[in-house]
Amino acid sequence: MDSGIITSTNLEKLKLFKQGKVRDMYDLGDSYLMVSTDRLSAFDVIMNKGIPNKGKVLTKISEFWFDLTKDVINNHVITSDTSVYPAECKPYLDILQDRSMLVKKTELIPLECIVRGYISGSGWKDYQKNGEICGIKLPAGMKESERLPKPIFTPSTKAEIGDHDENISEEKAINLIGESNYQFIKNKAVEVYLKAYDYAIEKGIIIADTKMEFGILNNEIILIDELLTPDSSRFWPVDKYEPGRAQDSFDKQYVRDFLLSINFKKKPPAPHLPEDVINNTSAKYKEVYSLLTGRSI
């Protein structure tokens, strides 16, 4: 296995603020150091093995999208240039290079903000039951993976590690964060999605859906965490798109499909991932980054 895979950062001289499913956050006083590891979470379970270069793809593709959409909404990025990181980070630059960002501290808004342009995944399952997704009525007779008449905003709760996010109604989301915050986030999330969608389609990629997070800084709502990565989005190749079935993808759906094929129960312990699944997932992540940005990892 590639010894360069980083599943835990252990930056002992820095203050660990939070360890998420994929990212380790360190408190630098006036900012956070956000490090994307090569851990993989599927069905909210962290797999036992990492994916080569995954953390680098997540960081660099997020950086790309944050820059592309900064005219839509401000974001939390300060810099990803390790040469200007604070002195206390210097001993760890070999780990931090290409997989970290300095970001602004914000008050987290406790919603997973999902924009769906196509009917897939849990949305497809919900639609089959009652013709709705998160209480939003959709046209009858839609096929799996069909494009929606217009993108819809479907919030969910933010779960702790080991728990599952839960889709919630607009009413519940408004009760949670307030009407004005909700409407602002809903509008901006859809606007970011549409800008990214229009860009990606020209590169041969359909962004079927994506998940965003927002925070509050000085009374302003800004984009935080990751943005439009293969972890948080469904990316489909345009030339293989065909409504009525599950799609080929450039994202971790490949791993989900493997887990479903072995009847994984969607709870720990995580099963063994074969080498071909690990390596093919790594290749898919790197390919979508290259297609979208013209750069390589």
Describe the model:
With 297 residues, this protein is of the alpha+beta class. The chain has 2 domains: 15-105, 2-Layer Sandwich (Phosphorylase Kinase, domain 1), CATH 3.30.200; 108-293, 2-Layer Sandwich (D-amino Acid Aminotransferase, Chain A, domain 1), CATH 3.30.470. It is 30% helix and 25% strand. It has 7 helices and 15 strands. It has helices at 54-68, 93-96, 121-130, 170-177, 179-202, 253-261, 275-293; strands at 15-19, 23-27, 32-36, 41-42, 45-46, 77-79, 100-103, 107-108, 111-118, 132-133, 136-137, 147-157, 205-217, 220-224, 233-237. The strands form 4 sheets. Strands 8, 9, 12, 13, 14 and 15 form a 6-stranded antiparallel β-sheet that branches. Strands 1-2-3-7-6 form a 5-stranded antiparallel β-sheet. Strands 4-5 form a two-stranded antiparallel sheet. The longest helix has 24 residues, at 179-202. The chain starts with 14 loop residues before the first strand and ends with a helix.
